[in-house]
């Protein structure tokens, strides 16, 4: 643990909250530090005071899944990697967007767009941490859209940007794999997803808002066969999401249990889901293409990671981002869906560490 005098430091381990005076919103973030002692190993030297130099800020998605799955999945980054010359451990900060856990909801659900609303909140975090710029900003899925939006809005305030199977608001690619190398379970899910998405194209706006799962959580069958196709409570929404996780993996039989264990018993708030996708997907943005046209504004050194078998955020998104961001590198994993740290764990952390070791 940190020295007692540091326990109120904004980078001390555990949950923190702060309030944005200009927005009248409270935000929560969670700090993870490396464990101070591991079984069967000698006690380590006393940890240094919290430092922003080795800070990785991780934006969790805004639709209600929270950060626990990321805390669990990205925990290996807390371990030192002497081979890369790493002498001090990374500090992981998980930022909760509006409406998630102890981050407050805005006055209106129309103030939940990934960009500019949620992206702008990262600048409140930066000011709270007294940073000139974020050393590393990382986001997965919808969290990736949020950090990308921030890097476009504030090009000089991000040194490194990591986009993991990210969304790109204004470009939808719910890719369906047709590769014969896919597992039978993935292939059958893909075919069913294709049918479900075709049905979804015929829905009216109200249906689209009520069942936004088909954008970020495609149904494994047609709506009539899906339990609770239009959930109205947090509990029924959570059950609906949990029934669809198999579509997020190349090999769901092997890897879905790992994701479920990482998520835990969380109940996901349907308000968050309806609000963020109500803004992002229903053309309530004043400039729906702003994130695509703003790619060239990013000045951060950027790593784009995608899974070739990701049915949720397809390769076109990664390719368009790589094309538009000047200093960017794209890595695509074969036999991998939406969660690369689960399906391609060794390769994923190797690639992340190599990128982190680069000079900004």
TrEMBL record:
<feature type="region of interest" description="Disordered">
    <location>
        <begin position="95"/>
        <end position="116"/>
    </location>
</feature>
<dbReference type="InterPro" id="IPR000073">
    <property type="entry name" value="AB_hydrolase_1"/>
</dbReference>
<dbReference type="InterPro" id="IPR029058">
    <property type="entry name" value="AB_hydrolase_fold"/>
</dbReference>
<protein>
    <recommendedName>
        <fullName>AB hydrolase-1 domain-containing protein</fullName>
    </recommendedName>
</protein>
<feature type="compositionally biased region" description="Pro residues">
    <location>
        <begin position="36"/>
        <end position="51"/>
    </location>
</feature>
<feature type="compositionally biased region" description="Low complexity">
    <location>
        <begin position="103"/>
        <end position="116"/>
    </location>
</feature>
<feature type="compositionally biased region" description="Low complexity">
    <location>
        <begin position="177"/>
        <end position="196"/>
    </location>
</feature>
<dbReference type="GO" id="GO:0016020">
    <property type="term" value="C:membrane"/>
</dbReference>
<dbReference type="InterPro" id="IPR050266">
    <property type="entry name" value="AB_hydrolase_sf"/>
</dbReference>
<feature type="region of interest" description="Disordered">
    <location>
        <begin position="177"/>
        <end position="237"/>
    </location>
</feature>
<keyword id="KW-0378">Hydrolase</keyword>
<dbReference type="GO" id="GO:0016787">
    <property type="term" value="F:hydrolase activity"/>
</dbReference>
<dbReference type="Pfam" id="PF00561">
    <property type="entry name" value="Abhydrolase_1"/>
</dbReference>
<feature type="compositionally biased region" description="Acidic residues">
    <location>
        <begin position="199"/>
        <end position="210"/>
    </location>
</feature>
<feature type="domain" description="AB hydrolase-1">
    <location>
        <begin position="65"/>
        <end position="343"/>
    </location>
</feature>
<feature type="region of interest" description="Disordered">
    <location>
        <begin position="33"/>
        <end position="54"/>
    </location>
</feature>
<feature type="region of interest" description="Disordered">
    <location>
        <begin position="1"/>
        <end position="21"/>
    </location>
</feature>
